[in-house]
Amino acid sequence: MLFAVSTGAHAQLFETRAKQAMLIDVETGSILFAKNEAEQIPPASLAKLMTMEVVFNALKTGRLSLTDEFYVSENAWRTGGAPSGTSTMFAELKSSIPLEDLIQGVIVQSANDGCIIIAEGMAGSEETFAGLMSERAKQIGLTDSIFYNSTGLPHPDQKTSMRDLIKLALHLQREYPEYYKYYSQTEFTWNKIRQRNRNPLINMDIGADGLKTGFTEDSGYAIVGSTKQDGRRLIVAMSGLESDRDRAEESRRMLQWGLRAFEPFTLFNKDEVIGQARLYGGAQLHVPLKTHDKVTILVPLTNRDKLKARIVYEGPIASPVEEGVEIATLNVYIGDQLAQQAPLFTAETIAKGPIHRQALDAITELAIGWIKN
């Protein structure tokens, strides 16, 4: 799924008090709302989503198992445990805890001690583990994120964006369904202390099954939430809210708006030719372009007339070209808002043209070059 920086939020459709926000429909890839979604902010506890990605990846590849036990060091206990005054699962000093319990502590209770225990157990130190987090972030396509600890506790250089958090949430759902289930767990008890899930969406009866909340003095209250109703899944990310009450209300309101205010609209069917790209030196002047998958977008019920699409590529395209090569992108807009992108592929194989055609195209391209300069 492709995401791009939007030109502005759907101000005419929805207003939010969040300073940064993004809402997507998972099935179609439609961006339903975007506001400062690429702006970098401190992730706070939302960094724990990346911590869990590293853990889940290790489980999936067989480097860890849920029954592996991790030792509680004094550093983990003091920095993230009961003495820290931060969110904790109250891990006992110098005890050993199975990984599955640590995962639940981190996800349900936002346990800082759980994060540090895992980080030290997997990488020897939290600093080294944070390097793994940043490395994995790049590998899965996060472009705005860098991590310096596993907890999200304040660090001046630790950054993420709503766009990256949406990508990360989608990745967790698709790649690790057997572990994603922990995000909908309503409570967890450890050391005889029961704590409820800190995500306010879980108990709102809106089909929410994740994911995480966060807070910093600099960026305010934040949340990444996911809900599924009637076969549709939406993911929201927002930050910059003034209170936990605002966070709960705004995220719920945006998710419900996304579920109610849009309808699916099929733009193009699978393998349908939808346009063409200019060729350089080819047997034909243009090569037709097609989609590999059906392109369906969610459009607002009251603004359907503002739907438009553009084909974007760097051209002319040098010949010869083979059929099935990705050379362009379909950008779909609702008004000025970039709502969806889809790759476009060549629909035919086209050979090089005769010498005079190649020469003519060369002259044409050269003239365009002069004009551009």
Automatic annotation (TrEMBL):
Its EC number is 3.4.16.4. InterPro entries: Beta-lactam/transpept-like, Peniciliin-bd_prot_C_sf, Peptidase_S11, Peptidase_S11_C, Peptidase_S11_C_sf, Peptidase_S11_N. Pfam families: PBP5_C, Peptidase_S11. Gene3D superfamilies: D-Ala-D-Ala carboxypeptidase, C-terminal domain, DD-peptidase/beta-lactamase superfamily. The keyword Transport does not apply. Keywords: Carboxypeptidase, Cell shape, Cell wall biogenesis/degradation, Hydrolase, Peptidoglycan synthesis, Protease, Signal. Pathway: Cell wall biogenesis; peptidoglycan biosynthesis. It catalyses: Preferential cleavage: (Ac)2-L-Lys-D-Ala-|-D-Ala. Also transpeptidation of peptidyl-alanyl moieties that are N-acyl substituents of D-alanine. GO terms for molecular function: carboxypeptidase activity. The keyword Hydrolase applies. Residues 262-352 form the Peptidase S11 D-Ala-D-Ala carboxypeptidase A C-terminal domain. It is an enzyme of class 3 (hydrolase). Belongs to the peptidase S11 family. Removes C-terminal D-alanyl residues from sugar-peptide cell wall precursors. This is serine-type D-Ala-D-Ala carboxypeptidase. It comes from Ahrensia kielensis.
